[in-house]
Structure formats: structure tokens, C-alpha cells
Amino acid sequence: MTSPIDLLRRQVSDLHQELVRYNLVVWTAGNVSARVPGEDLLVIKPSGVPYDELTPENMILCDLDGKVVEGEHSPSSDTAAHAYVYRHLPEVGGVVHTHSTYACAWAARGEAVPCVLTAMADEFGAEIPVGPFALIGDDSIGRGIVETLQGHRSPAVLMKNHGVFTLGKDATAAVKAAVMCEDVARTVHISRQLGEPVPIAQGDVDRLNHRYQTVYGQQPAAR
Ligand SMILES: [Zn+2]
User: Fold this and answer.
1) What is the E.C. number (predicted)?
2) Dist CA 198 CA 21 (whole Å)
3) 1: CA distance to ligand 1 center in Å?
4) Is residue 97 annotated as part of the catalytic site, yes or no?
């Protein structure tokens, strides 16, 4: 029998390879975590271990204060931020952090990515907002993520002068948001080189987002 925690270890380990595949990370930067459903626990990447060496076995199991419950390495240095999100947003089951290039270019200027593409209205339902400048070491990053995204449609925040944090109902959804965030940050950046991108009217953003979030894709009954 494979335990739910073992399945999550594999899922989180595998999802780190998606960060590599989509060019969202360099060296050992970036991390994925997942909440253990029904328990005050999370699974996260070990700190400083190269992506090629990540395995289900070396993922770290922590409590929601970021203390290690099981694991040989120390957890990602961003564990406190992930744990803060899980403590304050019970609907969140996955968190991703990257320093992906184009999103960071917006974060470095402290500028939100405006909602100027239908794909953005679908996925983000709004601009991708900027969170506060925050230093690692206490709850400031986690608090900045929660304060910016609570009540916001966007599952992604650009932490000022730093990088991207994305949230999802599970770790896969959070990775998807990280991939989409970099994609739209890149396209809108390129658009900006040639002029001012044209905003989409709020009513149309609302309609697109509603349709995408409720109608688009395979419905469970059709699977
Ligand atoms: Zn970072």
C-alpha cells in the first residue's frame, strides 16, 4: 500500500521537473510544496539539492510551522512562506515559488502585469498583482502573499524585487499558474516594447473568467 504522503512525495518531486521543463528555474532556485490533505503537514523540496537529484524520498515533510517532521535535509529556505500560506488560506493545497525571468522583470519594477490578453482573463481574472518588498527570515513574505492574494482572483503574485509565488487547489494547479504567469509576463513585456497594450473591459474580463473557471475543459462526468 502506498500512503497518501508517499504519493504526494512523488507528485511534488515530479512537479519540480516541470519547473525545469518550462525554463522557470536556474541552479537550485524555485520550489514546489503540497499540503497533506486533512493533516497539518506539507511536503516541500529540500534546500540546495540540484533538480537532477530530487527524488520522492528526499522531499521533506514539515508541519505547518515549517518544522521538519521527516527528512534528512533541511527544507527549502522558503518553507516559512509556504507554511504561512497553508495556515491562513485553508482552500490552498499547493504553492510554487520561482524567479522566472519575465515575471521577475515586472517584479523588479514593482509593476503589475495588466490584464490585456483573453488567456490572462481566463487564468488570472485580473492583473497579476505586486506584493510588498519582504526579506526572508520571518513571516513577512508569507504575510505579503496572503494579504495580496486573499480576495483576489489571481493565483499569482509578483513579490516586489523578488519573484513569483503561485497558489492552487493542489500542487499541479499551482505549477500551472507559475507556467502561465511567466508566459503572459513574457507576451505582455514584448507587447510593451511596441506600444501600450490595450486593456480588456472589466465586464469582458469577468465573462471570460467565469466561463473558463466554470465551463471550459472536460467536465468530471465526461472523463
Ligand atoms: Zn525567491
Assistant:
1) 5.1.3.4
2) 31
3) 36
4) yes
What is the 194 CA–ligand 1 centroid distance (Å)?
A: 30
Residue 11 alpha carbon to ligand 1 centre in Å: 22
**Structural domains of the chain, ranges and CATH numbers in brackets:** 4-216 (3.40.225.10)
pLDDT at residue 222 in the model:
44
Mark whether 212 is an active-site residue: no
Q: Residue 126: is its pLDDT beyond 60?
A: yes
Q: How far is CA 114 from CA 1, 75, 125, 188, in A?
A: 47, 34, 11, 8
216 is catalytic: yes
Angle (CA) 203 204 207, round 5° = 90
Looking up cell 518544522 gives: 67
Which residues, 6 or more positions from 182, have their beta carbon under 8 angstroms from its beta carbon? Answer: 22, 23, 24, 98, 100, 101, 102, 103, 164
HSE-CB at 149 with a 13 A cutoff on CA atoms is: 27
| Cα 69 to ligand 1 centroid, rounded to whole Å | 23
Give the pTM. 0.95
74-104: per-residue pLDDT in tens?
A: 999 999 999 999 999 999 999 999 999 999 9
